[in-house]
Amino acid sequence: MRPPVHIDRFVGRDEELAQLEQLLGANRVVTVIGAPGCGKSRLAAEFARRIGSRRRVLWFDAAQPGQVGALSRLASGTPTGEADLVVLDDCEAHVATLARAVDKWSAGDREIGFLVTSREKLRLPDEVVVELDGLGHAAAELFGDRANRGPATTPAIESVCDRLDGNPLAVELCAQFARVFPPEEILTVLEPSLPLLTVGHRTARERHRSFRSALDVSHRLLTADERITLRRLAVLSGDFGPTEAAAVCADISELVPRIGRLLTTLREKSLLLPALGPESGYRMAKMMREYATEHLREAGDEQLAVDNLVEWLALMADELTRAVVVSPALLAVLTRRLDDLTHAQQWAVEHGDDRGVPLCTAIAAVLIERFEFARAGELVQAALRDAPDRPLPHVQAARIASGLSDHEDALRHAARAYAAAEQCESRPMLAAALLETGRARLRRGEFTAAEACLSRGAHLSDLLDQPQGVAAAWESMALLGLWRGDLADAAIVAARTVAAYHELGDDMALVRAQRLSAEIARRSGAPAPFGHAVPDQPGRQSRVPAALSSRQRRILELVGEGRTNGQIARACGVSDRTVVNELARARAVLGLRSRTELAAWARRRSPLGPAGELIRADDGRSG
Q1: What is the dihedral of CA 403, 404, 405, 407, to 10 degrees?
Q2: Which of 67-81, 193-207, 399-413, 598-612 has the lowest mean pLDDT?
Q3: 579, pLDDT greater than 70
Q4: Rounded distance between C-alpha atoms, residue 168 and residue 382, angstroms
């Protein structure tokens, strides 16, 4: 067969076309894989068109009846001289058969190259794989071209393309609505999107006439266990791994031991994507999640899957009740699962489920760390309404009140937390209540009472083998010594605090402790014992700073100062688009969701962060 001819304009993929030419010049088999609708066939057709004057191309559409048999017969005859490039399109339904045919054919004629498009690779020893993702910025250009709007783009069109993951087939189908709705309204029309993306060109192959048809092809090729796993994953947001997948499949005992392999298979079949964040794992495209959700509801499993998720998250959140101070490791896990926690908490509220209380406290823990006290306060108050006798919501309420400089309210909630902890015999919550009481009294200038509470909190944390709580108590005691004027004792405690946070790998707290130690040294006239950077402990990497480039750190610094994208671009000598891209990458690395969260993160790491503010609060204070 000859390559198909397309009359509309080919948009984007210049890098991929150049990559194919380079790879096919040096390799025998190159396979283009990717999710349904990502443009594998169109890329191969465009490549064949561009090299048609230089190479003899033989095209096989494996999805058409009889084509696989024809290919196998030609492979047996090894037709040297008939072509020097064979394109095998849409191979996922016949991967094993075509892999044998290609291997046999090339063994008889080593001069022939093979370009394969499939949703999974052939797994040949000398196969080179090129994986396609969404079109990126070119998706908006494709939308404009297919909607007859020209190359110009708008923020509304870019938002539509982002909602569609930049998937070329979905973008082309959606562009038809631009003739009826303005781009600003299409996002509303796209909720949900799958029922609308069903009318393609009449002359297109069936799998390309609607986005649902493209997904159906892949779904039909899955085993029963793969289908169950795929639809259960629809209740997860963001990145996930085997632990999360096993949690939502917890009621299917025979599936859980094989969950890792099932995830790998779904990834190999291009139905899952690699995780965006720094952790290894997977994610599901928005359109794929919508499709899987439909199948989950049809199977009657949605409530069961969500209940599994709520149970797993509630157990994870319950770890907060056993921690004097939330550890960076637990906080990182809660941050990664923030969308899932929010979804689960809303579900619990709607169903009157008391597991909503630990979910509220888990979300609040993340928001408190980000200084989003208003949102955190709403969740804590909801937890207190449902469970006024639990100590953790009172501890968090005290932390929020301290963050808002309402020290009277902080003392009130700390006292209630202590009483509730005594009632339920929770020693970690007793220690947490002591720390919050000590901090509140410290800020009120009640130094003797503060020292007593902090010392007891440190001692109890030590007995509980919770070094994070001990370090937090030491940090406040060093600040107490600074404010009271006991600089020699304050310097010793501050040095101990720095060493503890360094050992724990708590980068944010370490920076605070370093600044506090430097301020104590400055007040006493001694050389600062610590710089702003502490070498990494052997075998431990600094999680956040090492993951960001120098340009990303500079951009975040400017975001923390309240600069606009245009001002940041001019200050860094880059384009506005580069600033947007770097901020998106930084959000993925840090596990944050918005510019506001990035700004809060940047301010916490700046010289004007919380520790500095507490130190300056001493001006004019007598001890």
Answers
A1: -80
A2: 193-207
A3: yes
A4: 44
Strands (E), 260-392: 273-274, 282-283
* Residues 435-453: tens digit of each pLDDT: 999 999 999 889 999 999 9
pLDDT higher than threshold 90 for residue 429: yes
Confidence of residue 524 (pLDDT cuts 50, 70, 90): confident
Residue with tokens 């509470």: 453
User: Which residues make beta-bridge pairs with 88?
Assistant: 60, 116
Q: Could you give the 3-state DSSP secondary structure of residue 57?
A: strand
List beta partners, residue 273: 283
Confidence category of residue 152, pLDDT binned at 50, 70, 90: low
Assign 197 a pLDDT band (cuts: 50, 70, 90): low
- Work out the burial of residue 134: count CB atoms within 10 Å of its CB; fewer than 13 is exposed, 13-18 middle, 19 or more buried: buried
Q: Look at residue 621 and tell me whether its pLDDT is greater than 50.
A: no
Closest CA to 322 of 473, 426, 456, 435: 426
Task: Tell me the mean pLDDT in the region 208-224.
Answer: 81
Residues 6+ apart with CB under 8 A from 504: 327, 328, 467, 468, 471
Report the alpha-carbon angle 327-370-372, nearest 5: 130
Q: How far apart are CA 527 and CA 522, in angstroms?
A: 7
Give the angle 29-100-45 at the CA atoms, nearest 5°.
Answer: 40
Amino acid at position 224, single letter: A
Query: Residue by residue, what is the 3-state secondary structure of 399-449?
Result: HHHHHCCCHHHHHHHHHHHHHHHHHHCCHHHHHHHHHHHHHHHHHCCCHHH
By the 10 Å C-beta count (0-12 exposed, 13-18 middle, 19+ buried), 111 is classed as exposed
H-helix or E-strand containing 31? strand 29-34
Name, in order, each residue with C-beta under 8 angstroms of 496's C-beta and a sequence gap of 6 or more: 474
Task: Tell me if residue 132 falls in helix, strand or coil.
Answer: strand
**What pLDDT sits at residue 79?**
53
Show the tokens assigned to 459.
Answer: 């001692």
Q: What is the residue-averaged pLDDT of the chain?
A: 81
Q: Count CB-CB contacts under 10 A for residue 276.
A: 16
Q: Give DSSP secondary structure letters for 89-115.
A: ES-GGGHHHHHHHHHHHHHH-TT-EEE
Helices (H) and strands (E) in the chain, counts: 30, 7
E strand or H helix at 288, and its extent?
Answer: helix 286-298
